[in-house]
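I'll show an entry:

:::
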Amino acid sequence: MNFAIGIDLGATSIKLVAVNEAGIVLERRTEHTTEMAWAENIRTMLDAVESGIGAAATWIGLAAPGLAARDHRAIAFMPKRLKGLEGLDWTNFLARSNTVTVLNDAQAALYGEHWLGAAASFENAILLTLGTGVGGAILSRGQLMTGTIGRAGHLGHICLDPNAPKDIVNIPGSIEMLMGDYSVVARSQGLFHSTKELVEAHLAGNQKATEIWMKAVFALSCAIASLINVLDPEAVIIGGGISHAGDALFEPLQKFMNDVEWRPGGHCVKIIPAQLGDWAGAFGAARFAMRHERKITTAFTK
């Protein structure tokens, strides 16, 4: 039996999915990301799933934050997070004869959404993952846009306020700083400690929470409108934990888009939620591993 295992290594959790070429899930597992043991935890999870299925995976793919190496065997660059991730060759670490492919987590999420989710019917789309930080990926003419060194698609790091402090990649006033969960404490002067807490207060009628939340959503709308002008997509797909805010996010976002989006001839770009939720990266990692084996590295061939 041929099947792939996709692993999504995040700052707070590790997700693993075993899936066949038809997209049928054989098994899923999730564990917390522990600071010193995440690599060993992945090895343990992988062994347990293969033992339960009774066969070794035909393909293994891993998604993680950072820039993937050109040979897709490691994350080549990931500053300040997940110490030990940079340069870790997963094929060697997991002692596999076939290459364990590695892909940026947001790019993997779009890969998964194009295979089985919200982007399945599009050839040109943008994905924004709103979570601890803000990730992104670009689908252009049915292919994943990676750029010269794999940096393309880091949409969370475009500048919206040149006078604001710099983010992790030295960009001042980025979407990540204005919308990411990690900056809520600073943006609210310590009033709120997570986006979930902020949104709940907004929905409960807290005027200060509403002010902070609407400022963030307006910034997001400006960023999306700017990206639309650059990339001209069919759709913008919103994923990540903050997207779970549902109408509290999408209703004001659409209202702001009505004000700031350029719509020649009345054309309106669709803004839709991701369908695979927190599992998009794991599915994308699995699918990328399947396609990489056939030497189709960045094309979304189905």
